[in-house]
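[User]
Protein folding is very new to me. Any chance you could explain this protein sequence and its structure tokens? I have pasted everything here:
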Amino acid sequence: MNLKKLFAISIIGTALSLNIITGVFAETEKKETNKISESLNNDKPIVAVVKADWCPSCKKISPTVMAIMKKYEKTTQFVFLDVTNAKTTKEAEVSAKKLGISDFFKANKSKTSTVAIINSKTKDIIKTFQGESDKKAYEIALNSIIKKSN
């Protein structure tokens, strides 16, 4: 097989992998966003993810965010604030308002791939990440806030 064909196959494989990951990310996002109203009185820290389908950095951090979400699903609330288009941005604005993090959303809605850990009681931002795909960085910050709340 020549080099051009190998390169093309590699590119197609990577694109398919990203589409699968993005699809899982989007589906999980919808499920988690629907749980927001159930968790309004929750003392769990909030992990707010500002994302857009067209954002390459969002696609890059998606596997890390999904792994963190799976690991911390019992101790942390996750909200995906989708700014892909006007409709999803309006829905994200409503979700942010329900959680009391409207100020965070207004300040960060143009900063896709932003992930913030927010104290659900005070709405203080504990830690903000921009395009971070290092799972350990999220774990350190989440473990710290969870330990303080116990």
